[in-house]
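G.,

No rush on this.
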Amino acid sequence: MTATDPAPAAVYPVGLRLAGRRVVVVGGGQVAHRRVAGLLDARALVTVVSPEVTPALEALVAPGSVTWHPRRYVRGDLAGAWYAVAATDDRDVNAAIAEEAEQARVFCARADDRSASSAWTPAVGRQGDLVVGVHGGGDPQRAIGVRDAVLAGITDGSISDRAARPAEGSGGSVVLVGGGPGDPGLVTVRGRHAVATADVVVADHLAPQGLLASLPAEVEVIDASKLPRGRSMAQEQINEFLVSRALAGKRVVRLKGGDPFVFGRGWEELEACAAAGVPVEVVPGVTSAIAVPGLAGVPVTHRGMTHEFVVVSGHVPPGHPASLVDWAALGRLRGTVVVLMGVDTAARIAAALVEHGRDPQTPVAVVSDGATPGQRTVRTTLAGLGQAIADEGIRPPAVWVVGDVVGLGAER
């Protein structure tokens, strides 16, 4: 076999379409696992040959994603393969795999020797249907650095991906993006990319405002804030904005705080778009019900302490005709209760929980302005919750947590 010249000019970059085609990976360690993960993204039919595999690889075998032959490589294993990876820790075995591949005219990547490989694996990143592959001239870290920089630029919009926008005159669409608890760094990669490629952004005041600052001037930003007990845009008006802009051929992003479907009225917006024939994509977000307590050092569950946690909307108090919450059932629970939108109603909710069985001395943590520079935590008990909120001047947005897990956070 003739070794491949590793000079960068010798590389011919090509994208292999391996969907439904057989690929053989010999080896069962960490390198093999990384290669298998990428091949599965390409929907290849992957066969792994190795006496042992990592737990992560074994987990792929059980549902049938990967075929595993639990033995050492033997000549003939590459029969019918379109591509091969030699990733064992034995150089002689890797050489034998590469030799069989060469004779069968199957491209083969050797994990231990680039110069003896007929194919090199680039540093690969994906952004939707866009695939970025970088060869670093023999330096894997260089390739990874460039790949990450390109993906970051595409994600935040500093590298324009105009083809991702609808063509002029084509049908528009709506993406419901959960912006997470407030810090732009806690938005999903897919959500950040959706915002960066939007023509119109309809944003709540709880959405990460830092994402809006980097948008080009031509992007229309619509303020759809709903201030507690204050000014707000009617939901029907928000729905109309989404539908009308999309029907005009725009890519519309509805940027919401937290997750679109956790007290976010996202389903109403999805239904409005669907009724108008507008395509809708949902990008989940990190809900503040879990993220904000976590950022304050309060886990909502802990082994041996709680087997459940409940997220409740506190925008109407117990006993209110509009309330759908079974406060009596929550008072009987032993686990964690997380209350959103419950600052003004906190004293009445606490009283209801105590009335129905919760210990008045149950610890409570109130976290206001979570995931922002102004985040602060006030610790109290159910009995003292109302007074603590009044004394500390706590205003929305705030999340409060009831349960023994609050005591864990106090130990930090």
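When you get to it, here's the other one too:
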Amino acid sequence: MFDLILRNANLPDGREGFDIAIRDGRIAAVERGIKAEAGEVIDASGRLVSPPFCDPHFHMDATLSLGLPRMNVSGTLLEGIALWGELRPLLTKEALVERALRYCDLAVSQGLLFIRSHVDTSDPRLVTAEALLEVREKVAPYIDLQLVAFPQDGYFRAAEGEAALTRALDMGIEIVGGIPHFERTMEEGRRSVEALCRIAAERGLRVDMHCDETDDPLSRHIETLAAETIRFGLKGRVAGSHLTSMHSMDNYYVSKLIPLMAEAEIEVIANPLINIMLQGRHDTYPKRRGLTRVRELMAAGLNVSFGQDCTMDPWYSMGSADMLEVAHMGIHVGQLSGIEDKKRVYEAITVNSARAMGLEGYGLEVGCKADLVVLQAADVIEAVRLKPTRLVVLKGGKVVSRTPARISSLTLDGRPEVIDMGLDYLPPA
């Protein structure tokens, strides 16, 4: 007797017609034609069943604040930073918690159950840290929320940046962040990377730095981050987020940099939606795309994942908590249009992100946590193409969200009466 069985599921690795049995919040069997009873049976009907989506890079303290206290008229990164500086003194814990919980509701409906959020520690009040720590506890039954102490105005540049970050970590934020390219000088940026890696090593924590989020090819803090990762024994615990300057770097320099990053086992987190929107703003034509070198980094064996970064905040007025939208943009910006490319992009929002976040028990193997999503698509390539409805979302083997399938009814003479985009328009096998 199982608690729940998902029948006739297609799996991300291409296997079709499998049943997934769940008991006590864990996957108990993945087989064809399981002969057993269950408290609940869900027929996937030949649709994709996947581990849930993971967002390894987000700013939950700013989410859904669009229009407060005013709109970003230019839509640029610099005006967004200035606007956040205007909003930050007005933030209250209650408002931060309310917006974050609303976003988490949306995330669950989209099958997004794992989120790493950077938390601005530049305001010494640390109202952002207090709010997000409360949210982490509230959403724990349905979302695993990781928090990064992020000195958004610069670890050295902000008036009380060093002390505030230390206090945030003492409060229970579990990852050390940084933004070396936003310090006053390249040298201060280098020193911030060293100091923050030292803190992580002393406390036994992970590191996730906004690194070289600029079009400047001479912004090379990722080189320092990789070197300090090796120096402090942090291999496998350090992420470099954005890395957009790599898009503009000289190819010869990159041929040295990527092997160094691979040696340090740096986790690479790109943010396709925001990178394509905000980078290249000083260019006329041709305009740079801004996304880091995803294909080359993957080919070198680095773990590359994609983050959403922002949703309806001072930097990005769009977004919908949909990691498939992120993957869809990543395919276009990175020109990752091959069949294997698309599969790797799907991994960038699932298994790769889970690895970057250090998640345990994630996946579809027997014994993994029964965190699953049923999508209105036949396979991972179709999922990225269609950005389909998340029909059922499971957390710990329990249904936490259901959404009706998107089915269109037509009244056209001589044509089908019903269209299911997820199954009726499959490409040739």
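The domain at 53-356 is CATH 3.20.20.140 (TIM Barrel). The chain has two domains: 2-51+363-424, 53-356.

Enjoy the weekend,
O.
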